[in-house]
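Severity: low
Component: inverse-folding endpoint
Summary: output formatting inconsistent between runs
Steps to reproduce: submit the following structure tokens with default settings.
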């Protein structure tokens, strides 16, 4: 006997992309489309518009259905959220320097370990992060949902400290977009 995980299940296939080409392909195939903002944040609007414009109903889906990925780090205070986020920033600065290191510990003073040019390069990699306290993050999530009309959000929370990551998810779970049921 041989194991066949998922045998008989109808698992919905998604197309994950970061371009209008991928969006049009998903629309023409009648598949749900997930947009990866971490790769092409400035293209999200045009990609979702192209997807919806080119959508053709299929056996899988009768109407357009979208998901948008967003970097989100929530904490009890603005200062704590930005401190936690510094680990992502410093790791990316190391990448710009040609180093490939795992996620780094957060640091209190990014300016002390980086140049202005390096910090400006972060905008290319992280132009749309939602980082802050509950109020800031909820406002940011509401803005993304309003601007994209996404049906779902995929939250990316690269955090060095697992306790801080768990706290971020606890705060996020209080937002209506993540309500279960």
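Observed output (run 2 of 3):
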């Amino acid at each position: 006997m041989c194991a066949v995980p998922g045998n008989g299940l109808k698992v919905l296939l998604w197309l994950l992309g970061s371009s209008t080409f991928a969006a049009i392909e998903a629309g023409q195939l009648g598949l749900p489309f997930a947009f990866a903002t971490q790769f092409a944040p400035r293209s999200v609007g045009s990609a979702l518009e192209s997807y919806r414009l080119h959508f053709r109903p299929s056996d899988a889906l009768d109407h357009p259905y979208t998901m948008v990925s967003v970097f989100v780090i929530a904490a009890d205070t603005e200062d704590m959220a930005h401190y936690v986020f510094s680990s992502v920033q410093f790791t990316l600065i190391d990448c710009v320097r040609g180093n490939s290191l795992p996620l780094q510990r957060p640091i209190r003073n990014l300016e002390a370990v980086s140049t202005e040019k390096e910090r400006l390069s972060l905008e290319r990699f992280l132009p749309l992060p939602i980082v802050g306290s509950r109020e800031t993050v909820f406002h940011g999530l509401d803005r993304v949902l309003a601007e994209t009309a996404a049906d779902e959000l995929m939250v990316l929370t690269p955090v060095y400290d697992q306790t801080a990551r768990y706290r971020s998810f606890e705060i996020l779970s209080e937002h209506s977009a993540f309500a279960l049921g």
